[in-house]
Amino acid sequence: MRELTYFVAVSVDGFIAGPNGEHDRFLAEGDHVDAIAERFRGTVPTVFADRAGVPAEGGPFDTVLMGWNTYAVGLPHLPSPYAHLRQIVFTRAHEAPVGADAVECTDRDPVDVVRELKSSPGDGIWLCGGGALAAQLADEIDRLVLKISPVLFGDGIRLFGKRSYAPSGMTSDAATRYESGVVIAEYSRA
């Protein structure tokens, strides 16, 4: 059975973005970057991977899930941010923009979609963001991989949105600290 992994950057105080959706304070340079790019190949937007000469194929995921706000961060410049993956965007009010032919926008229940994906053949499923979608899918998350940056936002979009609790029954599998100050913390469902 396929696994759903919530792999996301987060501040020390638990935010995946600032109050207005800012994410530019996360560390994008340092010794953690190459290690993450290799271990979690395919989690860099296709166009950036191509420019940097980083392979996008052969990673642990073949499907990426996003809420509309996470997806819209790249618009209008990246209408198909992860063209090398199946891209599913959850929204009740939007359609895929022009040039986003490879993006599936859906208003279906995210839990139903994830359960269907898990029961079908394929590689891992990556929950890219955002917090509200993660809150809806918390009980479906099999692995949680946090790229913890040594920054404080103080306010913004929480890791699990407005949900008052994280997934239950998670076991700490590993924590890797980098000289940059970034820590990769990995958990799996017990």
Automatic annotation (TrEMBL):
| Pfam families named in the record | RibD_C (PF01872)
- List the residue ranges forming a coiled coil, or say none: none
Q: What GO terms are given for molecular function?
A: 5-amino-6-(5-phosphoribosylamino)uracil reductase activity
Q: Name one GO biological process term.
A: riboflavin biosynthetic process
- What are the Bacterial bifunctional deaminase-reductase C-terminal domain coordinates in residue numbering? 4-164
Among PANTHER family, the record links this protein to: 2,5-DIAMINO-6-RIBOSYLAMINO-4(3H)-PYRIMIDINONE 5'-PHOSPHATE REDUCTASE, DIHYDROFOLATE REDUCTASE FAMILY PROTEIN (AFU_ORTHOLOGUE AFUA_8G06820)
Name of protein: Dihydrofolate reductase
Q: Which organism is it from?
A: Microbacterium esteraromaticum
